[in-house]
Design a protein that fits this description.
The chain has 12 helices and 13 strands. It is an alpha+beta fold. A 5-stranded antiparallel sheet has the order 3-4-9-5-6. Strands 10-11-12-13 form a 4-stranded antiparallel sheet. The termini are far apart. The chain binds flavin-adenine dinucleotide. The site of flavin-adenine dinucleotide has 33 residues, from strand 1, helix 2, helix 6, helix 7 and helix 8.
C-alpha cells in the first residue's frame, strides 16, 4: 500500500489507479482519459476481504460486485449491498467491477453510491498523510468528482450490520447499458406497533451525484406507514434537486419516475 501511495504521490498529475477497469478502460479506449501511468492495486493483499467488526462490516475496496452479490454473510447481515450488486450491468462487469472503484469513480448513475448513502457508510482512504475515514455524505461532490485526492486510495467501506431493518434496491435502467435512469436504495425500520423508526433513502441517476432524500425520510420517520403517506412522501423525492435531462428522459419524466420508484422501493423493503 505504501509503495502504491508513494508512486501516486510522485506522479500525481498524470496517474490513475486501476481496480476492475470497468470504467477506467472504456474511458482510456475512448481517449477521454490518457494517464501516463497506471497503478494496479489488484494484488495488494487483503484489499478484497469482507469482515465483521462489532456491529459493523468492513468491505475491502477490491471486493467485486460478484463477491458482494454472492456473499451469504452480506445477505444475512447487510442485504442492501447484495440487492444492489445484483442489478449492476452484466455478469462480466460484476466479475471485474469493484465497490471501491465504483465509489471512487463517483458516477452520478452508479448504483453503489445510493446504497452506501442509505447505509450511512464510511469510506476509508490511504494517502501520503496516513489513513482517514470519510462519511459518505461528505464524499461525493458532483459529476465524477469526490473529495478524494489524486494520491489517495479508497481501501475499505464500513457499513452497519442492518439487523432487522428492511431494505431494497430498485432501479429503472435501459437494457443496453444497465445504468440507472433512477436507482433507489431504501432502508426502513418499523417497530411492533407499525411505527417507522428509520427511513433512509439513497437516490442515484437523477442529478450530478447520488443523494439522500431527506424530506422523504422526515415525512415517514415517527409515523405509522400506509400507502397514502408513502406516496405523499415519495412526491418529495426530488425537492430542491436539479433533476437532469438526457437521452434517457426529460427532467419531468425522471422526476415522475423517481417518485414512483421511491414509493416502490419503500414498499418492497417493507415486504422483505
Ligand atoms: C457495460 C458496462 C455497464 C455498466 N453498468 C453499470 C451499472 O449498471 N451500474 C453501475 O453502478 N456501474 C456500471 N458500470 C460501471 C462499473 O460499475 C465500474 O466497475 C465502476 O464504475 C468502477 O469500478 P472499477 O473497479 O471497474 O474501477 P476502475 O474502472 O478500475 O476505476 C474507475 C475510476 O476510479 C478510480 N479508482 C478505482 N479504484 C480506486 C480506489 N480503490 N481508490 C481510488 N480511486 C480508484 C480509477 O483511477 C478510475 O478513475 C458499467 C460498466 C460497463 C463497462
Amino acid at each position: 500500500m505504501t509503495d502504491a501511495v508513494n508512486y501516486l504521490s510522485a506522479h500525481k498529475d498524470d496517474v490513475k489507479i486501476l481496480s476492475g477497469g470497468q470504467s477506467l478502460l472504456p474511458l482510456m479506449k475512448m481517449r477521454l482519459s490518457k494517464p501516463g501511468f497506471v497503478v494496479d492495486i489488484g494484488r495488494i493483499p487483503g484489499l478484497d476481504d469482507i469482515t465483521q467488526e462489532g456491529d459493523h462490516i468492513i468491505i475491502g475496496a477490491m471486493a467485486t460486485y460478484a463477491q458482494i452479490e454472492y456473499s451469504d454473510f452480506l445477505k444475512q447481515n447487510c442485504p442492501l449491498l447484495p440487492q444492489t450488486a445484483t442489478t449492476i450491468a452484466d455478469v462480466q462487469v460484476r466479475n471485474r467491477g469493484t465497490i471501491g472503484g465504483s465509489i471512487a469513480h463517483a458516477d452520478p448513475a452508479g448504483d453503489m453510491p445510493a446504497a452506501i448513502l442509505a447505509l450511512d457508510a464510511e469510506i476509508k482512504v490511504a494517502g501520503p498523510n496516513g489513513e482517514r475515514w470519510i462519511k459518505c455524505q461528505d464524499f461525493f461532490l458532483g459529476l465524477l468528482m469526490s473529495v478524494l485526492e489524486p494520491d489517495e486510495i479508497v481501501t475499505a467501506i464500513k457499513v452497519p450490520v442492518t439487523g432487522n431493518d428492511k431494505t431494497a434496491y430498485l432501479k429503472a435502467a435501459p437494457r443496453s447499458s444497465g445504468f440507472a435512469v433512477v436507482g433507489v436504495a431504501a432502508r426502513m425500520a418499523v417497530d411492533g406497533t407499525g411505527n417507522c423508526n428509520r427511513a433512509a433513502i439513497g437516490i442515484t441517476g437523477v442529478t450530478d451525484k447520488a443523494y439522500r432524500a431527506e424530506r422523504v425520510e422526515q415525512m415517514l420517520t415517527g409515523k405509522k406507514l400506509d400507502a397514502q403517506l408513502i406516496e405523499a412522501a415519495a412526491a418529495e423525492a426530488t425537492r430542491n434537486i436539479d433533476v437532469i435531462e438526457d437521452i434517457n428522459g426529460s427532467s419531468e419524466y425522471r422526476k415522475h419516475l423517481t417518485e414512483v420508484y421511491v414509493a416502490r422501493a419503500i414498499e418492497v423493503a417493507l415486504r422483505s
